[in-house]
Design goal:
about 170 residues, mainly alpha, two-stranded antiparallel sheet, 2 strands
Length: about 170
């Protein structure tokens, strides 16, 4: 396992949009995503690696184009957001299967992704690591929060683990 993965994800630590895709491809958990098919209903771009690249581009253009959000975040928060988007679907490499219906499913990829990210980032700063892991774990929640009967309770539960501002930034 490589040390300082977070520092190596980006060619310049705080550089806008400067991702080291070659380094990312050298990490087996990421390289698996190249062969990870996705449902064309939700992800017409194809495999999970391509989705990760497009999600990162979207983050840089659209989310960080929101001046109020961008300037309300510290440099550390911006770094955590960027790293979380790169890692948000890392669990799809081990959870994606083709169902009897012929469709691709990645059930619980966010739970497995949290575990994988924690292992990859074990030697990193604990605050950054745990915030990134929580963002990965809950990145789907903004899409399904109100499906829950106890959505207010769920909202507070999630908010106790991760700042909603950061979760909003990485909603996928």
């Amino acid at each position: 396992m490589k040390k300082n993965i977070l520092q190596n994800l980006f060619k310049g630590i705080w550089c806008h949009g400067n991702v080291d895709w070659e380094f990312i491809n050298s990490i087996p958990e990421f390289s698996r995503l190249h062969n990870c098919e996705q449902s064309p209903v939700w992800h017409s771009e194809g495999n999970a690696f391509k989705h990760t690249q497009l999600a990162y581009e979207k983050l840089e253009k659209e989310v960080f184009g929101d001046v109020n959000l961008y300037f309300s975040c510290s440099d550390t928060e911006l770094f955590i957001i960027r790293a979380s988007v790169l890692l948000h679907d890392i669990g799809k490499g081990v959870t994606t299967t083709q169902g009897k219906d012929g469709k691709w499913h990645a059930y619980n990829h966010e739970i497995e992704g949290e575990k994988i990210a924690r292992a990859l980032l074990w030697n990193e700063d604990i605050h950054k690591r745990e915030t990134i892991c929580a963002l990965i774990r809950y990145h789907m929640e903004p899409l399904r929060l109100f499906d829950s009967k106890n959505w207010i309770h769920r909202m507070f539960e999630i908010g106790s683990r991760v700042p909603w501002k950061l979760l909003y930034a990485i909603k996928m």
